[in-house]
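We include the pair:
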Amino acid sequence: MRVVVNADDLGISDAVNEAIFNGMRSGTVTSATLLSNGPAVQAAARSLRLFPKCSFGVHLNLTEFEPLCPESYVDLAAILDKNGCFNGNSIREVRIGVPMLRAIFREWSWQIENLMRLGVEPSHFDAHHHVHTIPQLLPVLAALRKRYKIHKVRISRNMYEDFERPSQLLLAKKRLFNLALRTIGFQTTRIFTDLTTYVKLCGAAPPSSGSVELMTHPGSLPRAEEATLLESDWTRRLSYKATLISYKSL
C-alpha cells in the first residue's frame, strides 16, 4: 500500500506552516499544498528546500483571501465579498458560465505562477475546500494541466465513514468525475480520504487499491484526533505494511 500524506493549507498562517514542517521533519507528512494567496505563503516557500523528499503542490483557491489577478475583481465579482475577498462557498451557488470559467483559469494561472516565482516546483493540484472537484471546472483543470505540465491531481473524496457517507447517486457522480480526471491525462491515487477515516476503516485490512492520498490539516485546532494520530506512529495500527510516499513517487 502506497500512501501520500498531504497537508493542506501551507501558507495560511505561520502556525500552520510550522505544524506542517514539524510533520515533515518527523516523517509523518510527505506532501503539502500551498495557498498562493495565503498570508504566510512567502515564509512557507523559503523553507521548502529543507524538505527535498516531500512534494509541494498548488492549493487552488476560490473561497478565501484576495484574488491575485487584477482582472479577477471584475470578472469574479459574483464570488467576492464587499472587501474584494473570495466569499466562502459562493462558487457553489452561482452559475458557472464561459466568462466565469475563463476568469477562474486566469486567476488560477496567477496563483500557479506566483508560487513558481517563489521557487516552488508544483507537483500536483488540489483545492481549498475542494472546489476543483466542481464538475463544471473540469475544463479549467484540463487547460492548466496542458499549460503548466502538472499531471497529478487530487481526486474527489471516495472513502467515508457510515455516518457521513454520501448518497449512492453522489458516489456515482464522484466515480465519473475521478474517471474523467484520468481520462484527460491526470495521474491520481485511487482513493482519497482523511487520515482519521483511513485508520478507522482500513486498519484491519488494506483497501483493494494500491495507492491512497490522506488529507491532513496540521495546526488546525478543531482536529485533535488527527493531530494525535500524526504525532504517533499510526502505521503501526495497520495490519499490513504501508509505504509513505510523496506525489513525486506516485
About this structure: The chain has a mean pLDDT of 96.
